[in-house]
Every structure is written in structure tokens, then in C-alpha cells.
Amino acid sequence: MTLFLKSALFISFLIFACILGFQESCAQSDSLAVKIDHYIQDRLNTSSLPGLAIAVVRKDSIVLVKGYGTTDGKRITADTPFAIASLSKAFTALAILQLVEKGAVDLDAPVNRYLPSFVIDDPRGTSITIRQLLHQTSGLADTGFPELAFAEQPHTLDQAVERLKTARLVSAPGEQFHYHNPNYQVLAKVVEAVSQEEFSDYLRKHWFVPLGMSHTQNVALTHLFYAAPDGLPRGNIFAFGKAIPIQEPQWFVNGAAGMISTANDMAHWLQLQLNEGVINNRPLISRQSVALSHSLPSNPASTYAMGWYANDNKDLYHSGILWTYSAEQILLTESGYGIVLLFNGGLNPFVDYYSFIHDIAELTAHEVPPVSRWPDWVFQACLLGILVVGLGLSIRRIIRKRSGKHKFRHYPAWRSWFGVIGRLWPLFLLLLIPFIITALSKRVLNWERIFLMMPDVILLLGALALSNSILSIIQTIDFIKIRQVKKESQN
């Protein structure tokens, strides 16, 4: 056999092997896409969610980009706009790091070097650095500045920074992690001050256009979601197992949670992260800056990088939650997958958004497909059922309010009063809900947002509290009358 023939056979073998490898890779990708597609359809069948959009990518390929269900009466596609909420923070972080690369920003410089208007009524506020804002270790927190509970909202970044004069630091800068949206509002204003460009314009020019994110935009206030060129359909709250479309309540979101995007656009964003700052062979930011945005602070110990949480596996994750929209994104750094899920449903204790992305991450690792879950409404129905039964019993007692009146004659006073006060537990629980939420989440919400989060629970618990309070008043009056008659008869 001549050398030429041997070489030709060897080259043919290599080509054949490459074709087989490519076909096998495509088959695996197709198989994964089918598995994810089936999983989402099964989950939506047992969920209160009307729909969602998903993007699953690798560095150089798209595994799946698709929309499911409907939103505000329209079919969801890969180009349907969604509010991505706090997924916006990672964009703000990279905007800052882009300016750091240009030498315009020093991460360890005090914020007021760039924003003289950044003044906090605490002498420690002057030492807050850009890096601490990025890592959410500035000392600012909801418990010291409850921005989610304020009735009046700012309209510009200047106003957002100005109102921080009334903020109270809950810890010294650099000592503790506190997730707080104003940290990223201040960072957005730093971008404006340094670049001399309005923040939304900066993102569009330096990030959205180069990334090919043609359906992505940033706004300052939630009511502007619906006035944007790619107007946002209404999202949903949930009550009694049903999705109810409403507009997002008014809230200042610039820099921290103000972006609208699509599954197709977010696929480009994830690929930028996986390719360490390069998109279409064009570097938008250095590999070192991307790595820095994914890195945790050494002091204090924290799981928050710069717009990303990191777990023990070094996977990077962040959620975004509004009252009518939610989003989840994850970078599986070992396997090289990026996943984003966009939901047209908002914050609700009975809708488990994280389980979607967790299960899909398992599918990418070729784990056994997740078992079927209980429908969302099961747990909600159980709680609501308890409240309805309690309400029915209370109303029944009010209607038959005299039937147990004679019992007070034989009870000691302490037992009667204990029974009367004990009936006020629904009222006490209702009044404690804001404090329970703050204790569990460290976030401070006003009653409007608490109601939108679980309207059915609040309505039924409120009705139960009212009926039991009425019953307590009736029993108190009866108890006082009986004791008075008993006292007169003894005299």
C-alpha cells in the first residue's frame, strides 16, 4: 500500500470519526432538549403558572430556547418579553467592571469620590466602597431602610441616592452581607456619573446592542414596563389556585431590577458568561473581570459575588422576583451549561420557581428525570381549607352565640378570660405576618405587597380574625353580665 493511499485512508477515518462524534453530540443535545421539553410540559400541567420561557445553552450552542403557555391572553414564544427583576444586577455589576477596566472606577474607592450626593446619616457611610456595594456588604439593609415598604417612590437615580440620607446602617461597611436593592441603584448612578451617559442608554450601547439583545431594555419604574416599545404583557398574582393578571405595583427598579428581556436574548447573555466575556469572537469585557464578578469576597465570608450567588459546587445562581413576574438563572460551571427560566407569575409562597431550574440542572447532568410533584394548589388548598373550616365554625358560634352562655356560670374567671383571649389568635397571627416575613427573609414589606403575595390567605385569615374578634367581644359581654348577675345574687 502506497504512502499516499495510507494517508488517504487515515484522513478518511478521522473525518468519519468526527462525523460520528458530531452526530452523537447532536443526538445527545436533541435528547436533552426533548427531556427538558417534556419536563416543562408536565410541570405546567400541575402548576398554577400560565406559562414560561426557557433558554438552555452551552458555550457555542443552543440546546433549547422556547416559550410555553400564555401570558395575558397571548401565546408565549422565545421572543415574548418578561420582567427579569434582580437578574438585572449582574448587568449592572459588569457595567461597573467595564468602567474599572477603562481606569474610570476604582473598586476600593469610597462611593462619594464619584457621587458627592451619596450621604448617609452615619459617619461610617463615608467609608462605603464600590466593591462593598457590589458584594452587598455596604451595611445598608431593608431593616435600616425599608425601600419596599415606602409608599412614595423616587423617579430618578438622583432621587434614589438622595433619599438614602435617611438610611440607617445595620452593620459597619464590609462586615456583613445584607441583600438590599439600593446598593445596585447607587452603582447605576455611579455608571451615569462616570460615563456621562444615562444608565439605560449605557446598557443599550455597551451591552444590549453588542450582545444582539434586540428585545431587551431597562426602565426606572415598573409602570414604564408597559409603555416600552416591546411593551410587557401583564404578569400574574395567584389566588385560590388561579392566576390573576394585573400590572406590577409601582416600584423604583433602576439598576437593581429594571430590565425586560426574552429567552432568546438571555441565551446570548448566558453564552457571554460561559465564554468569559466573549460573544461572536468579540470580547466585550476581559476574562479577569468576568471571573471577578463570579468571585466571592474573602471578608466577610459570604455566598454573594457580584450579581451572582455561588454554591459549594461553584455553580452561579440568581433569582429575580417581582409581584407579577419571576426569573431564575444558573451557570453550571463544571458541565458548561447555562439555564434561564422566565415566569409570568410573581412572588407566592405556594409556587416553587426554584424547583424548575434545579430539576433541569439535574437533567443536564443525565440524572434520573425528576419524579412528578404535587400540584401547586394542593398545599394551598389544605391551608385554605383549614381557614375556611375555622371561619365556618366561628360564624356558627356567632349565630348560636347564646348556646354556650351557661358555661360561664361554672368556669373560674381565669378560664373564661383565657378562652376569650384565645379566640384572638387569628388576629394576632395576621398582625404578626409582616414581622414573620422580616424575620425569615430580612426583607420589609408593606401590606399592599404582602396582600399581593398571598391574597387568598390574607382574605380568609382576615375574615377568620374578624369573626373570632366579634365572638370574643360577644363572649366578653356575656361573661361580664353573668359575673355581675352572679355577684348581685350573692349579695
UniProtKB/TrEMBL annotation:
One GO MF term attached to the UniProt entry: hydrolase activity
Pfam families recorded: Beta-lactamase (PF00144)
Keywords: Hydrolase, Membrane, Transmembrane, Transmembrane helix
The keyword Plastid is annotated on this UniProt entry: no
Domain of life, per lineage: Bacteria
Residue ranges occupied by any Beta-lactamase-related domain in the UniProt entry: 37-347
PROSITE patterns: PROKAR_LIPOPROTEIN
Membrane-spanning parts: 377-395, 416-437, 457-480
Gene3D superfamilies: DD-peptidase/beta-lactamase superfamily
InterPro entries: AmpC-like, Beta-lactam-related, Beta-lactam/transpept-like
Protein name as catalogued: Serine hydrolase
The organism of origin for this protein: Salmonirosea aquatica
